Amino acid sequence: MVITGLGTVSPAGPDTATAWKAACAGLPTAAPDARLDGMAVDFSCAVSAFDAHAVLGTDARRMDPFTQYAVAAAREAVADAAADGGHWDPARVGVLIGTAVGGLETWLEQSARLRNTGPRAVNPLTVPKAIGNMAAATVALDLGLNGPTLAVATACASGTTALGLALDLLRAGRCDVVLAGGTDAAITPLLSGAFDRLKALSRRRDEPSSASRPFDRHRDGFVLAEGAAVLVLERAADARARGRRPYATLLGYGESTDAHHLTSPDPDGKGARLAMRSALADAGVAASDVALVNAHATGTPLGDAIEARLIHGFFGSHTAVTSTKGVTGHMLGAGGAAEAVFTALSVEQGVVPPTANLDEPGADIADIDIVHGAPRSAPVPVAVSSSFGFGGHNAVVVLGRA
């Protein structure tokens, strides 16, 4: 199955071209965030230069931001795929959008109304704005798509899980096209405080732009981010018939569960290894074929060290490794989808974005070839993108040249 359309709304920019340029330049986006004033962690990687009402019109009022981002990204992806709907049977087009949190901003806003003013102040659209399936459902409504429409919730692996399930739908013949990705808009005092209580967030308040530091010796946690990414997947023959040259091929997918702990990854990386092994087998490629790993690497001390050992165990020290979270921060359920977008562009263009803010790998980071300082130009015939989430969810996709 091939990737023919890309759409993103992210801290690195309101569209894919802008975000890719920022990723290749290694430009960090973390900055103070007025929404978090007074919090112990008062900075984030916020979506930039996105005007929901300009993009979506009055419909934006009926959407939580997590849905606004998803609809905007889906519109860009479909336009990029050069399809106006006339090329596709709407009943054969599926939508799978992952989210870790859903419409948190709406729930919090309406809870405050209830507490401060009373039940009659609660917006009647609260439920259809906030429930977790509404990003996927609204994308289908906005584009007039009648195929399977599903919400995916595997925490921070959600966007990657959505891509794997899309591959399954296409292989099974249940769809001809699938729009797959992830979205989250949860930069709120509640979530910032909750993650900080877990000691998961960077506390680099004096220098937030350098706070997201995947694999770096001074990493101290991730930076909360938001946004969405959507990819259009279809069969190669159908893309050729439409005259659309794909970005990349989605070769395979693997998933597993640690069954170890609510929030901590298995210290031996057992579940992640299972997912990686399954993905490579599903793709029919050997580890030696892989030229690039876009790592999950969020900048947490424990998680990055475990993942580095995993990568070294599979690929040694000769496969290029990057983490674009140094630029975007951790977009939660959207992270894996955004990283798949960047990985598809790496495969197409032969360019690997640098890992921003990596000055020196930690002493606990295995000997792997982490791209940093500047983008690297090199052929990328096969690439891997990995995502791991709370609850022990592991998801890995393998991309190759189209």
Automatic annotation (TrEMBL):
Pfam families from the UniProt entry: ketoacyl-synt, Ketoacyl-synt_C
Keywords: Acyltransferase, Transferase
SMART domains for the chain: PKS_KS
Domain Ketosynthase family 3 (KS3): 1-401
SUPFAM superfamilies listed in its UniProt record: Thiolase-like (SSF53901)
InterPro entries membership: Beta-ketoacyl_synthase (IPR000794), Ketoacyl_synth_AS (IPR018201), Ketoacyl_synth_C (IPR014031), Ketoacyl_synth_N (IPR014030), PKS_Beta-ketoAc_synthase_dom (IPR020841), Thiolase-like (IPR016039)
Translocase among keywords: no
Family: Belongs to the thiolase-like superfamily. Beta-ketoacyl-ACP synthases family.
Protein name: Beta-ketoacyl-[acyl-carrier-protein] synthase family protein
